[in-house]
Design goal:
There is one protein chain. With about 650 residues, the protein is α/β, with parallel strands linked by helices. The chain has 21 helices and 25 strands. Helix 10 links the parallel strand 12 (about 255-260) and strand 13. The longest helix is centred in the middle third of the chain and has 31 residues, at about 340-370. The protein is elongated, with a radius of gyration of 31 Å. The protein binds ligand ME8. The site of ligand ME8 has 20 residues, from strand 1, helix 1 and strand 12.
């Protein structure tokens, strides 16, 4: 739906009983990506994160650490606060529930709800889980145990204050039904609705000070502190200076919360009811994602399977980490975290697709025009098609971002990268450089403009990389100033200066983080290796035996056919003393007819592989440069089957 000119996004405020791990990093990065997106969409944005510091859980963790709750909360809250800049999180505020403004705001809301008759005092006996800090109804337990902690809850009898949540059940069901996007994606909306089929119980919102003192004192009974969730949820409005604040007026109507499914119930049920009781409009959207899991379990401190964000950032770089989290997880579903998958994406999507595109484009712009591309001449249909697809990409991207399907937004950008790489291959600027300088300028324009668009769309995800790229492209508008509207301004020349030199944006890596030696880049690199690239040293050197193990043979192509379903592949039949079928990526570089009779070098002892249903038994050797792919062959006709040494 159309948003107004403002946007407000929040993360959960994290408990200070444990160090941040990639689960916390994920939600916060998602909220950051969306905030940055909203900024380039031209909206006035406010982005909030913070820490949740009261309650039993924190007291127990502090005791374990031999510290007072306040000193302990200061320390761990500080860990979160100092982590975020390292992940390039652009939050506008960081709230702590121990802030005096927040505490005063909670008391004000409690008074208001109490005055309107929605709070009552009552004796209660119930099953209490200390891990969750809440009472459980029998039917919520699994085999008598807390479903989250797998511990048997303790029976506790005490007098407490209760919030008449049951009063708002019908209103809430109605609100969720009328606003299908209130809780999204849909599976979580359904989960809340199905929970609301049972009668809603009132919520116990106090803890006697005899049991817990680390909390906000109830304004109407100083023998009690506020239940931690009734305290914590209010952060979302206290940070906006509810009720009088200008921020509250401006941003509350467009509030969006980001959480994982573990805290769906407090956010999907308690919070809207609390707001209603306090006379505050409901938030706009609750965006719920799944869990990052490690070896199929939820990450948790007690299981000792925590993945620490900074360890990964140190090894692979921040933007690769941010990209991976957003590309890999489907928002709303669980994902398995694996370092191999991260490395795979880094090498394939970042080093190969994006890195190569940027480096070859800028290299050509500098080589052919010293970075100043002249005005384009008349465009051809292929240029028009590329331009249209690049502009359409902006809309597709915005749709995906508005509906929280980040992996699709990224996939769309990578399809754009693929189209641009293909356009370069087809237009072959290196050929035009020799034959048609005017056409070359037009083509290079159609390379640079989509790159500018891609840099802008990448900024929310990978701010550092995008700004680097915008620098190479000589753009005067960068980062948040390069808005979606500006991106649509194709060829808006005023913003473009001379193109700079691209450094290796994303070096390829091995799992564990070793950068691959330059000579190993092989086919990934489009430009010819220079003399400056040294041979790898030590362990990276190939043994003589390893080379000997390769069975390289001279062969003669006896048949070559088009594989109709493939954009790249031809099927060759090669005589190497016996007939071999070899599927090779030569389409577009060689006409099948021209290959027959040619000599080639075949890797003869390669494991067979099925490509498009054809079994390929071997590979042909070729060299690659800007002009394309060139088959290797002996320099005089040589007997088929001869070994290459
Ligand atoms: O619940 N996968 O704080 P918390 C994905 N203080 N996200 C994860 C995750 C995982 N494995 N683990 C944690 C609290 N998260 C309350 C919130 S809000 C008013 C009060 C993320 O420190 C995810 O966002 O336990 C989840 O909802 C949140 O951390 C829970 O953080």
């Amino acid at each position: 739906e159309p948003l107004s000119g403002a946007y407000y996004g929040t993360t959960p405020i994290y408990y200070v009983n444990a160090e941040p791990h990639i689960g916390h990093a994920y939600t916060t990065i998602v909220a950051d990506v969306v905030s940055r997106y909203q900024r380039i969409a031209g909206r006035d944005t406010f982005f909030l994160t913070g820490t949740d510091e009261h309650g039993d859980k924190i007291v127990r963790a502090a005791e374990k650490a031999g510290m007072s709750p306040k000193a302990y909360a200061d320390k761990v809250s500080g860990l979160f606060r100092s982590l975020w800049p390292k992940l390039n999180i652009s939050n506008d505020d960081f709230i702590r529930t121990t802030d005096s403004d927040h505490m005063a705001c909670v008391q004000r809301i409690l008074d208001k709800v109490n005055d309107s008759g929605d709070i009552y005092f009552s004796e209660y006996t119930g099953l209490y889980c200390f891990g969750c800090e809440r009472f459980y109804a029998e039917r919520e337990l699994e085999n008598g145990k807390c479903p989250d902690h797998q511990t048997v809850p303790e029976e506790i009898r005490e007098s407490n204050y209760f919030f008449r949540m049951s009063r708002y059940q019908d209103w809430l069901i109605d609100h969720i039904r009328k606003n299908p996007e209130f809780i999204r994606p849909e599976r979580f909306r359904n989960e809340v609705l199905s929970f609301l089929k049972e009668p809603l119980e009132d919520l116990c919102i106090s803890r006697p000070k005899s049991r817990l003192t680390w909390g906000i004192t109830l304004p109407f009974d100083e023998n009690y502190v506020t239940y931690v969730w009734f305290d914590a949820l209010i952060n979302y409005v206290s940070a906006l200076d509810y009720p009088e604040g200008e921020r509250f007026r401006r941003f509350w109507p467009v509030a969006q919360h980001f959480i994982a499914k573990d805290i769906l119930k407090p956010h999907g049920i308690y919070w809207p009811c609390m707001l209603k009781a306090a006379g505050i409009e409901p938030f706009q959207h609750l965006n719920v994602h799944g869990w990052w899991q490690v070896s199929s379990g939820k990450m948790s401190k007690s299981l000792g399977n925590v993945v620490r964000p900074l360890d990964l950032v140190d090894i692979y770089g921040l933007d690769a980490f941010r990209y991976f989290l957003l590309r890999e997880m489907v928002f709303g579903l669980d994902s398995e975290f694996s370092e191999e998958a991260l490395v795979g994406r880094l090498n394939a999507d970042l080093a190969n697709d994006l890195g190569n595109l940027v480096s070859r484009s800028l290299t050509m712009a500098r080589k052919y025009f010293k970075g100043e591309i002249p005005d384009p001449a008349e465009s051809h249909p292929e240029d028009e098609a590329l331009r249209k697809s690049a502009l359409d990409l902006i809309d597709t991207y915005a749709d995906c971002m508005d509906s929280m399907v980040f992996h699709k937004a990224l996939r769309a950008i990578w399809e754009g990268i693929g189209r641009l790489n293909k356009y370069i291959d087809t237009m072959a600027p290196w050929v035009l450089a020799k034959s048609d300088p005017e056409r070359l300028a037009t083509v290079m324009h159609h390379v640079v403009e989509p790159l500018r668009i891609i840099s802008g769309l990448l900024w929310p995800f990978m701010p550092e990389t995008a700004e680097k790229l915008q620098g190479y492209l000589g753009l005067s508008d960068r980062g948040r100033d390069l808005t979606l509207d500006r991106l649509k301004d194709w060829g808006g020349k005023a913003t473009t200066g001379p193109l700079g030199k691209a450094v290796d944006l994303f070096p390829r890596v091995e799992p564990g983080g070793e950068k691959k030696p330059a000579a190993d880049k092989g086919g990934q690199k489009k430009s010819a290796p220079t003399r400056a690239e040294k041979a790898p040293a030590g362990d990276d050197l190939l043994s003589f035996q390893a080379f000997q193990d390769m069975d390289l043979r001279v062969g003669t192509v006896i048949r070559a056919e088009d594989l109709v379903d493939s954009k790249k592949l031809l099927r060759l039949t090669v005589d190497i003393g016996e007939e071999r079928t070899v599927v090779a990526g030569l389409k577009g570089h060689y006409e099948p007819g021209d290959l027959v009779g040619r000599q080639v070098i075949v890797v003869a002892n390669l494991k067979p592989a099925k490509l498009l249903g054809v079994e390929s038994r071997g590979m042909v050797l070729a060299a690659e440069d800007e002009a394309g792919i060139h088959l290797l062959a002996p320099d005089v006709q040589t007997a088929v089957g001869s070994k290459v040494r």
